[in-house]
Amino acid sequence: MDPAERIEAASKFLLQSPPGEINDVLNDVRNIISDDDSLQAGVLPALREYNTTQFTTAEVPGHQHQSIVSEAARVESSGDGEGEDEAASQDRYWDPRSRTSFRFDHLSLESSEPEPIEPDSESEPFRVALETASLQYLQAHYHDGVTSVFPVAGSSTRFIIQIVANKYNPTNFWSGRWRSEYTLDLAAQTLTGKILLSVHYYEQGNVQLSTTHAVSLALPPAIAVSGGAGAAAKALALVEAEESRYQAGLADAYAEMGEKTFKGLRRALPMTRSKLDWDRVLGYKLGQELTNSKGVFGQPA
Amino acid sequence: MGDLVDSMLDLMRRLPPTHVEENVASLVAMCPDYADDLLGSVDQPLKVLTDRATGKEYLACDYNRDGDSYRSPWSNEYDPPLEDGTVPSPKLRKLEITANEAFDTYREMYYEGGVSSVFLWDLDDGGFAGVVLLKKTLTPQSPGEPSGSWDSIHVFEAAERGRQAHYKLTSTIMLQMVDRSASTRGSKEESALGKGGRLVSEKAEADNAKRDGEVTLSGSMTRQGEQDFPLQDQASHITNTGKMIEEMEIKMRNLLQEVYFGKTRDVVFDLRSLDDLEKARRQRELQKELVGFIKR
Questions:
Q1: A253, B140 Cβ separation under 8 angstroms
Q2: B101, B256, B276: best mutation site toward chain A, by most A Cβ within 10 Å?
Q3: When comparing pLDDT for A301 and A229, which is higher?
């Protein structure tokens, strides 16, 4: 494998990291590649992709809350930066809640260089209403979640609501992540979204839950930009109903897999409801082999 | 550099079990010098092959591999054929034949289908070692039904000590289940409600909604055990390892049930609560106030 192929393979490993374990995976990969210089530059795109698709949360400099670092949060570079500034300008994200943009380091996960940013005045009032409703929803259903609501650039009728919740418990060998994202399109009157769950349990083993759920539904007419706070609350009520429904469906799927699939793979005990009598198993088989002068093995034992 | 192998094994304990084969292949390509260490330590899903001589299915893993060929427990032949492939001594082969018969019965009793294979090999100190493999796959009859697979790998070492034998067992079970109904489950119930006349607006919404998704539970768990058993004759090795493996599988099946359906589910419900937490908070406040009121 040439160095470029090794970096590519390392990048693939990083993108598969379970919740909260990116640093452990990075340490393993460092040891395997054992060439820090080429690694650090080479895996930056993978780290960026991992952080933005996994809805990594960042401390907003100068504020008491966290915001989500994702593709929707990326601040388009103004284009005056050239060459060396390219990577840095690529890694500016913004928190609409505090109207702050910041630089995010995808390796150290630190945010810096805060700057005030002016949101689009047309979409901002409804975005704020959605954000308030989303924060309320977060309080009601998540123990430890972060939400960000972004306007879609160039549109005053499309908004992206993102939610992420993480629980890392390395002392008890488990971690979990819930991600959901919804695009609210008030012109098309649709809500499309996805829920992604990953859980890792790794005490003397490696067990993972991984789920995908995509949804697309039509909005009731009451949800419009002119509807203000009431319409925003209704939109989040749709999100709440969808997520609760999915969670209930997941509980049912668990029950079904436990009842049918698990039992269908291996019984708890044989049909006889007792363990095997190994002396009889052997006696029976040996006896059978003696009577059949030609067994499956071609020769009698 | 044992350090490197440790890093590779740590990595395999973290990356998704559904991609174990691709990831092992990548690591082997990255560090070809450590291929044997890695292939010998990371359990991969068992492959089902067909014995050309008997037509019977058997399981392939690192323990019955020689180069690119795999030995069948039924005919003792390698596929693709090998002139000088490693085979057990005639005495051990005799025991291997009987063990395969016995575990075939075990498989039928517990798995009601699937494939089993037992491979034995001589050890330098005069003892022997072996691996008992079991695999069952459930393929859905319709797209909505769940699918799954179970792979058991039991590696043991036997040491004779007079009329006793000492066994060391390392057992790994790989279990995978996929369900495609979780996303649409809720909506079915809802339209059933709608037919009853209630929630008409929600019924209309349900008809317009499109949902799709997949739930995958996958992984592996490993446990070890040691035990002494009396030894009457060579066949005692089969009853002894049989009992030990049966106990281990019963214990591990309970453990898998607890982790797959208990622990991972608990984490999900720890991330998001179905009940309204804010309501519960307010209720607690109210209760506190009431208690304070009564005390006054």
A1: no
A2: B101
A3: A229
Interatomic CA distance for residues A184 and A188, integer angstroms: 9
- Give the domain extent around A15: 1-53
* Closest CA relative to residue B106, chosen from B85, B127, B132, B84: B132
Q: Are residues A245 and A202 in the same domain?
A: yes
**Shared-domain flag, residues A67 and A77:** yes
Interface of B with A in 64-123 (CB under 8 A): 74-75, 94, 97-98, 101-102, 105-106, 109-112
Encoding tokens for residue B260?
Answer: 């797959």
> Which tokens in the block code for residue B143?
């797209």
**Of B129, B130, B36, whose CA–CA distance to B117 is shortest?**
B130
Query: Could you report the predicted ipTM of this complex, rounded to two decimals?
Result: 0.89
> What pLDDT is attached to residue A71?
95
Which residue ranges of chain B lie beneath pLDDT 70?
1-2, 186-207, 296
Number of domains in chain A: 3
B168 touches chain A (CB under 8 A): no
* Contact call for residues A153 and A191 (beta carbons, < 8 A): no
CATH number at residue A128: 3.90.1150.210
The residue among A53, A70, A88 that closes a domain is: A53
Contacts of A223 in chain B (CB under 8 A): none
DSSP letter at A18? P
B141 SS3 class: coil
Cα atoms found within 13 Å of the Cα of residue B145, Cβ hemisphere only: 11
Question: What pLDDT, on a 0 to 100 scale, did the predictor assign at position A225?
Answer: 77
Q: Tell me if B264 and A276 make a contact (CB, 8 A cut-off).
A: no
Is residue B221 within 8 Å of residue B256, measured between CB atoms? yes
Give B210→chain A minimum CA distance, Å: 5
Q: Which of A140, A141, A176 sits opposite B270 (nearest CB)?
A: A176
Q: Of A265, A286, A288, which to mutate for an interface test with B (greatest number of B Cβ within 10 Å)?
A: A265
Counting Cα atoms < 13 Å in the Cβ hemisphere of A157 gives: 9
What is the tens place of the pLDDT at every residue in A151-161? Answer: 999 899 999 99
Contact criterion met (CB below 8 Å) for A46 and A15 = yes
Q: Map out the domains of chain B with their CATH numbers.
A: 89-295 (3.90.1150.210)
A58-to-A16, A20, A67, A137 alpha-carbon distances in Å: 21, 14, 5, 20
Mutation target to probe the A interface, by most A beta carbons within 10 A, among B264, B265, B275 is B264
Would you tell me how many other CB atoms lie within 10 Å of the CB of residue A17?
24
Residue B109 has which token pair? 């009793």
Give the pLDDT score at A1. 81
Question: Which alpha helices (DSSP H) does chain B contain, by range?
Answer: 2-14, 20-30, 35-41, 90-111, 182-195, 200-208, 236-257, 264-271, 277-295
d(CA B167, CA B248) in angstroms, rounded, equals 13
Sign of CA dihedral B58, B64, B66, B67: positive
Alpha-carbon gap, residue B106 to B114, rounded angstroms: 11
* Tens-place pLDDT, residues A35-69: 888 898 899 999 999 999 999 999 999 999 999 99
Residue type for position B255: L
Q: How many residues does chain A have?
A: 301
